[in-house]
Amino acid sequence: MTERTTDELIGALRRGLAPVRPLPRPVFRAALWLGLVTAIISAALLRWANPAIIAARTAEPRLALECAAALLTGITAVVAAFYLSLPDHTRLWRYAPLPPLLLWIATSGLGCLQYGAGLGPAGDRLGESRHCFMFIVLISAPLSVLLYGVLRRARPLEPLPVALSAALGVAALAAFVLQFFHPFDTTVVDLSAHLAAVAVVVALAGLSRRALA
Amino acid sequence: MASETQSQLQEAAWARLMGAAQQGDANCYEQLLHGITPFIRSLTRRYCRNPQLAEDVVQDVLLTVHRIRHTWDPRRPFSPWLASIAARRGIDRIRRDSRIARHEVSDELALETFAVPATNNESGALRAVEAIEPLLAALPERQRRALEAIKIRGLSLAQAASESGQSVGAVKVNVHRAVKALRALVGTEHKTEDQ
C-alpha cells in the first residue's frame, strides 16, 4: 500500500537530487573494455603462447574460421551486454551473439569430425580436456569480475540477460585465447569440455546476476 | 497533426528538463517529475487495474527514474527511455503479484477471525492479543484503536487513518505513544511481580 503520496515522493526525490554524468554510449564503453582486455590478452600471448602454434592454426582456413568465430562471439556478446544493460535499447541485442556462436560450434564440430575420422576414438584426450575446461573457467572468472564492474554502473533493470550475455562473451574470449595454447585439433571430448566450460561460466553468471543490480 | 506537434514539444521539454536535472537542477527535476507522472500513470494502468496498486507502480517508476537517471543519453529521445522503465516495473508488479498469489492462500474468513480475536480461540495470535488486552484497555481510546488497527490487524497507515477518521500523521503519533505507554505498563507490571 502507498503510505506516502506521489507528491511527497517527488519532494523527497527533489531534495535527494545530485548531479550525475550520463554514461557514455554503450558501444564506446564496450570498445574501451575490449581494448583493455585485448591489451591484457596480447601481453599474455606474447609472454606465454607458442608463435609456431599460432602460425599453424591461422594458416589453416577452418582453424582460422573457428578462432574468428570464437572471437566474434566474444565481441558481440560483450557489446550486447552493454546495450542490454540500458533500458531504452532493443532487447533483440540478446540474440546478436547467436550467429557467431553457431558458426563457432559448427566449425569446432567440423574439426571434431575431421580429427576423429583420422585418429579414431578421442578418449585419449580426456586429460587434456580437463585442462581446457579449467583454462576457460579460470580465465573467465577475472574477466567476468572486470566486466561486471563496468556493467553494474548502468544498474540494469533486467540483470539476467545482461549477465548471461556478459558471461558468454568472456567465456568465448577465454576459449579464443585457449586456441593459442591448444597444440592439437579439437576432439569431440575437447569440444564438449569447451562447451561445458562456457555453460558453467554462463550458469554461474546467471546465479550471480544480482551483483549487477 | 496537432497532437503530433504537441507530443514533440512535450518530448523536447522533458528532454531539456532531464538534461538540466542530470546537471543537478532541482527545480527542473521537480517540474519534470510532476510532468511525467500522468504519463507514467496512464502506462501503468495497462499493467495494473487496481488504482492503489497502480499508484505504487507509479512511485516505483519515479524511484527507478531517480536511481538510473544517469543512463539516459541526452542524444536519445527521453519518452522511450521512460516508457521502457514503466513497462519493466509494470511487468515486475504483475510477476510479484502472481508469485504472491501462487504461494499465499487467500481466506477472507481467516482474516475475519484474526480481526476479531474473541472468535479465534485456537490461535496463538489470539492468546498474545488476549494477554495484552488488559494493558490495551488502559490506553486512551484513540491510541488503543490506532495500535489495534496497525499492529494487530495489520492495516496500512492510510487504511487505519480512513477507518478512524484521523490523519495519517495522527495515527502514526498515536501508535508511537501507545507503544511507549505499553512499554511503561509492562515495565510497571514486571516490577510489581518482582516485588
Describe this structure in words.
The complex is a heterodimer of chains A (213) and B (195). Helix content of chain A is 72%, strand content 0%. Chain A is built from 8 helices and no strands. Chain A has helices at residues 6-15, 26-48, 51-59, 61-84, 98-119, 126-151, 159-178, 188-207. In chain A, helix 4 (61-84) runs antiparallel to helix 7 and helix 6 (126-151) packs across helix 7. The two termini of chain A are 24 Å apart. Chain B folds into 2 domains: 2-103, Rna Polymerase Sigma Factor, Chain: A (Orthogonal Bundle); 108-194, Arc Repressor Mutant, subunit A (Orthogonal Bundle). The model of chain B has no long low-confidence stretch (mean pLDDT 78). The A-B interface holds A 1-3, 6, 9-11, 13-23, 25, 86-88, 153-155, 157-158 and B 21-24, 26, 29-30, 33-34, 37, 52, 55-56, 58-59, 62-64, 66-74, 76, 80-81, 84-85, 88-89, 156-159, 168.
Features:
heterodimer; A: 213 residues; B: 195 residues; Rna Polymerase Sigma Factor, Chain: A; Arc Repressor Mutant, subunit A; 2 domains
Would you spell out the secondary-structure blueprint of this structure?
The complex is a heterodimer of chains A (213) and B (195).
Chain A: H1 6-15, H2 26-48, H3 51-59, H4 61-84, H5 98-119, H6 126-151, H7 159-178, H8 188-207
Helix pairs in contact in A: 2-4, 4-5, 4-7, 6-7, 6-8, 7-8
Chain B: H1 2-22, H2 26-44, H3 51-67, H4 78-103, H5 108-115, H6 124-137, H7 141-152, H8 157-164, H9 168-194
Helix pairs in contact in B: 1-2, 2-3, 3-4, 7-8, 7-9, 8-9
Report the span from N to C terminus of chain A. Answer: 24 Å
In what range is the share of β-strand residues of chain B? Answer: under 5%
CATH superfamily of the largest domain in chain B: RNA polymerase sigma factor, region 2, helix turn helix motif
Tally of alpha and pi helices of chain A: 8
- Low-pLDDT segments of chain A: none
The main pleated sheet of chain B reads as:
none
Structural domains of chain B: how many: 2
Query: How does the major sheet of chain A shape up?
Result: none
Radius of gyration of chain B: 24 Å
What pattern of helices and strands is seen along the backbone of chain B?
A: HHHHHHHHH
DSSP E strands of chain A, number: 0
Number of strands of chain B: 0
Shape of chain B: elongated
As a whole number of angstroms, the C-alpha radius of gyration of chain A is: 21 Å
* Approximate helicity band of chain A: over 70%
The CATH architecture of the largest domain in chain B is: Orthogonal Bundle
Taking the alpha carbons of the first and last residues of chain B, their distance comes to 85 Å
